[in-house]
Amino acid sequence: MTLDDAAVERLVDDAKSGDPRAFGRLFDHYHGSVYRYIVSRVHRPSDAEDLTQLVFVKALEALPRYESRGIPFGGWLFRLARNAVIDHVRTHREHADLAAAAERSGGDAGPDEVVAVRQALDEVAAALAALTDEQREAIALRFFAGLTAREAAEVMGKQEGTVRGLQFRAIAAMRRTLGIDDPDDTVAGHALRATEEPPIGRPRAG
Amino acid sequence: MDEEYVDRRPGDLETYRRLDAFAQLRLAPDAAAMARIRSSLVAEATRAADVRAAQALVAPTPAPPAIARARRFGLPRRRMSRTVGALLAATLTLSLVAGTVAAARAGGALYEARLWIETVLLPSDPGQRADAQVARLDERLSEVRAAMAGGDAGAMTAALDAYAAILSELESQGMSNEAVADQVIDDVERHQAVLEALVGRVPAQAQDALRHALERSSSAADHLDDRGAGGPGNPGAGGQGSGGSGGSGGDPDRTPSAGTPTAKPTRTPKPVSEPTAKPTKTPPAAEPTKKPPKTPPPPAGPPTEHPGGQPQQSSKAKPTT
Question: Taking CB atoms and an 8 Å cut-off, how many pairs form between chains A and B?
Answer without folding.
Answer: 168
